[in-house]
Design a protein that fits this description.
alpha+beta; Serine Threonine Protein Phosphatase 5, Tetratricopeptide repeat; 6-stranded antiparallel sheet; 21 helices; disordered N terminus
Length: about 400
């Protein structure tokens, strides 16, 4: 069976790498102009922007995506949020402009090619509207809430910020905090060049190197939420023995942070704390306004304690998820797992056949025999009939 994926995605640290040390400049001035006031964005305008974002993000096309961002406003937000002297704010903005800072380019570097984005809904926020996207990649889930603004002069609608659920804050807030810590470290004579190396190692999937670089960073920088989340992701990807300990340190250090829900999901899975897991899922449901993928997460939770009642619930929640997400393979595997444990072999055959034909999965009888969950199924007449039909259709 496919390993149940983790539910954490690291924040787009590549963006931070693009501006690491940007404020450490000698340029002086009277601070940075605040971002311009924007007009409200209608539901139709938000839907149009969402379609353009969806087309540009999967696969990630930096040139197309860049046209959807108001990069000047994003840059101003970052430096205005940073708790640094006005002269350094001006220097930071100048450096961002000099480097042609692009959120889009850096985001594309941070996303893996398999990332899948789906628009969940357009949500009203006061007088304006914001698209909410779900991102799935290799069994992980994250949400991106796009803050939009409409220019008072041109009427053009652009993205001015992203609320990233795994970090529990706006992207500009995350980057402002990294600038603050980077400047503080430089004033102490420490280097923060590790941002670029950390981003490169994460992009290449060198998780051991990610952890090594993070551990070598100045303590205050390493303990920022953004770096801690990337370090946590690295431990998850490694299946590191201290993964749960890292989660629990995060829960302890950021107990009331919005990011803790997505972090805690894995912790509750590892602790097999089903009541706590369901409470977190309920909170996420409320925050995002509902998501059928969370029905799949519920199903995974009930499989932790495979009582007859929980297996029935796991199958039911899998079918809820399938109604909306029939092309997500993990959901079918959860359904098959529940059916195998319930010994509903007729249903198992139907589900495995769907997995085989829809997703091109090849089944190996010997490999199946090595897994306890298949033992009773393999000696059933339902399996024998299905196996004969499959071999007859595809060859031995």
């Amino acid at each position: 069976m496919k390993r149940r994926g983790p539910w954490i995605v690291g924040v787009a640290l590549a963006v931070a790498a693009g501006i690491a040390g940007a404020g450490a400049l000698g340029a002086c001035g009277d601070g940075v102009p605040r971002p311009p006031a924007m007009d409200p964005v209608s539901a139709d305008e938000a839907a149009t922007l969402a379609r353009e974002f969806d087309a540009a993000i999967e696969p990630c096309d930096a040139d197309r995506l860049e046209k959807l961002f108001d990069s000047e406003t994003v840059a101003r937000r970052i430096v205005n949020k940073a708790d640094i002297p006005a002269s350094e704010k001006r220097g930071g903005l100048n450096e961002l402009q000099r480097r042609n800072f692009s959120v889009a380019r850096q985001l594309c570097l941070g996303f893996v090619s398999a990332a899948r984005f789906d628009l969940l809904r357009i949500r009203q926020n006061g007088a304006t509207h914001r698209p909410l996207f779900r991102m799935l990649t290799d069994g992980t889930v994250n949400y991106y809430d796009l803050e939009l603004g409409k220019s008072k002069t041109s009427g053009v609608v652009r993205i001015v910020d992203l609320y990233v659920y795994t970090s529990g804050e706006d992207l500009t807030t995350t980057l402002a905090g990294l600038i603050e810590q980077g400047l503080a470290a430089e004033r102490r004579g420490q280097t923060v060049a590790g941002f670029q190396d950390l981003a490169s190692a994460r992009r290449e999937g060198d998780w051991a190197e990610v952890r090594r670089i993070a551990e070598a960073m100045p303590e205050r920088v390493r303990n920022t939420k953004a770096v801690r989340l990337v370090e946590l992701q690295a431990a998850m990807e490694q299946d590191a023995p201290d993964y749960l300990a890292i989660i629990e340190r995060f829960e302890k250090d950021f107990p009331d942070d919005p990011a803790v829900d997505l972090v805690a999901i894995d912790g509750h899975f590892l602790r097999k704390d089903l009541p706590a897991l369901m409470r977190v899922i309920e909170r996420l449901e409320r925050r995002v306004g509902g998501d059928p993928y969370l029905a799949h997460v519920r199903s995974s939770g009930y499989l932790l304690e495979p009582t007859n009642d929980n297996l029935e619930k796991a199958e039911r929640w899998s079918r809820v998820a399938l109604d909306a997400l029939p092309d997500v393979q993990d959901v079918w595997w959860n359904l098959a797992t529940a059916q195998l444990q319930r010994q509903d072999h007729v249903a198992v055959v139907a589900t495995l056949e769907t997995i085989r034909t829809r997703f091109g999965v090849t089944f190996d009888r010997d490999a199946m025999a090595e897994q306890d969950i298949y033992q009773r199924f393999l000696v059933s007449p339902e399996f024998a009939g299905w196996w004969a039909r499959v071999n007859g259709a595809t060859g031995p």
